Amino acid sequence: MPSVRLLQQRLSGTWRTLLKELSAFGVVGAASFALDLLVFQVLYGNLGTGAVTAKLISTLVSMTAAYLGHRHWSFSHRARTGLRREYVLFAAINGLTLLLGLAIVALVRYPLGQESALVLQAANVASTALGTVIRYLSYRRWVFPPASPQTAGLEPTDTAATGTR
Fold it and tell me: Is the pTM of this model over 0.85?
């Protein structure tokens, strides 16, 4: 049955694409995190830059590196909607997930009255995990949207074979 085989090929391709995106997303995220730590250490620890200025610069450098890594590797198969548009959305999403993380830690610390470093670190890790999921889904949806069928390598004959347009 040609339609069953075509469906199996599409599902297999979808899973491969998802696995590629997720693994590249994780590698880019880990490398960007390490870059953030490195730049902060060099600026604050070695060059004597103020802590807040060092953190601002290290965040901007690592966020830009993450954007480039995601654009050219994690989501390289997706549509290109313009560098300025993508970067502004990317920065906004990162800013919102940062605020979410701060809110979660502040909620645990102040209204819930938790002072334990272990509890606060657990809230920090949970907020980072939640932020990571939100960033991944947001990048896929808004920053790097799906390519049109023609740019995704789907030939018009493929859509005719499935009966969809």
Answer: no
Asked if 32 and 65 count as a contact pair (C-beta separation under 8 A), the reply is: yes
Contact between residue 144 and residue 78 where contact means Cβ atoms under 8 Å apart: yes
pLDDT at 14: 82
DSSP 67-122: HHHIIIIITTTSPP--HHHHHHHHHHHHHHHHHHHHHHHHHHHTTS----HHHHHH
> Are 32 and 6 spatial neighbours (Cβ–Cβ below 8 Å)?
no
Place of tokens 């939100």: 134
Query: Angle at Cα 145 formed by Cα 144 and Cα 146, nearest 5°?
Result: 120
Say which amino acid occupies 126.
Answer: A
